[in-house]
Sequence to fold (529 residues):
Amino acid sequence: MEASPAPATDSTGPTPVPAALRPDSWFKSFFLETASLARFTGRFFKEALLPPYEFEELLKQAFLIGYKSLPLVAITGFIIGLVLTIQSRPTLVRFGAISWLPAMVAVSLVREIGPVVTAIIFAGKAGSGIGAELASMNVSEQIDAMQVSGTNPFNFLVVSRVLAATVMLPVLVVFADALGLFGTFVGVNLQGDVSARLFVTQVFESLEFKDLLPALAKTFVFGWAVGVISCYKGFHSNSGTEGVGKATNSAVVFSIFMVLSLIWWPCS
Amino acid sequence: MTSTLPEKVDPPDTAAAVPGELVVVMAHVKKSFETNHVLQDLSLELHKGENLVVLGRSGSGKSVLIKCLVGLEELDEGQVNILGQDVASLPNAELLLLRRRIGFLFQSSALYDSMTVRENLEFPLRRQPGKRTAAELEALVREALQNVGLEEAMERLPSELSGGMRKRLGLARTLILKPEIMLYDEPTTGLDAITSKEISKLILDVQWIYHTSSIIITHDIDCARRTANRIIVLQDGRCTAQGSFEELASAADPWTRSFFE
Fold:
């Protein structure tokens, strides 16, 4: 009897899972990354307190990070106020509460939507800029060049950018809130007739300092988080243009993730 | 380009032999990146006023060697002593001070892209101890640019400069701090023959005028011939030969000799 042919088998066995996708490897890299970020954050506090203080660079970065983000943040704030008003109107009309429209949108904007949306826009605009700039400086050995010329690149590049982001985001949020309220005024008047005086009265009767101050305090934390994460990603980028792309991308993704995580910060 | 270094005496066309005290001592240095053993028990010495050329194929560990010297890469084993100080044991603040006495010309020149030529030169000056007036800064910047023949480019951005001009600007930015030791990482890579010759001449000018001691990493034999007082050959992270250009060009080892053919 002729032996039946042996079933075809893969001599190498099942395809091995790539190392980067194995759970143990993923956890290991997650904890290593977290530890590295914690060290970076600790170094930021240490370097921020010690001289030399790079005031000139801080002002330059505040201009670049703040002023250059202003148009995008302003347009976003205006559109959010306008859309929120137009979308909320039918529901309030159904319940006969149309007079509450300016107050409702104003409280939503100032307490949560303004700070969070502005921080997310800021993470995309300023965070990507910081991540890409530092990563390309790293790749082109400019950070090494600073070190060998006796300059502390962490102090010059990281501390100035993180402080600028921390200070400028609250300013941008105030602008976004103001433009958002203007958008609300426009939205209210698209299908109704509310005078500016009445609108302002309705808005400010409903708003209190306890709405504004915790929200503003939170934006300092958002700005700081975006600055630290973007600088960390740029400062620790891998070599090559691929490294710049990855650093920029992960600076934005992790900054937005951090902003969304911090929404539940006690000030809320 | 004609060098306009401010000296009456013309520098020589080839490096002069200048034995002196030791300014750099590298002893039994090992450096690995995961499984890639880049430097393996490497030792070298640099004398005051000497130009030491390190020759080797790409990937032989030349650039890692000079990064280890200034503490940009941490050593796995061994010791590096520069100007009497053990680099590995220096605290960060003292390491920054030591680095101000060392010039480093990067292969890519590593110019600060967002700054003009003037700002590139002012950057290290402004971070030195002691306050300088705007006029003093201007004079120092102008002198440094004149030394490398770039005074007309003061307000331009690095992206507007040619490869040779970028190298010269990198050199000017390094020399503005008046370093005692110069480290050149592939100073002539990517340059045409004429510009390479000019950069080699500039390296000699720097040695002659500023009395620097230099380590020049290269695989450009013409640059090595022009600038070297002594050459060491690096193979797989080890020093396999050393001597003058002529000695190595007629070495018994065919691998060493192949560099010079």
In short: Confidence is low (pLDDT under 50) at residues 1-10 of chain A. The CA atoms of residues 124 and 252 of chain A lie 5 Å apart.
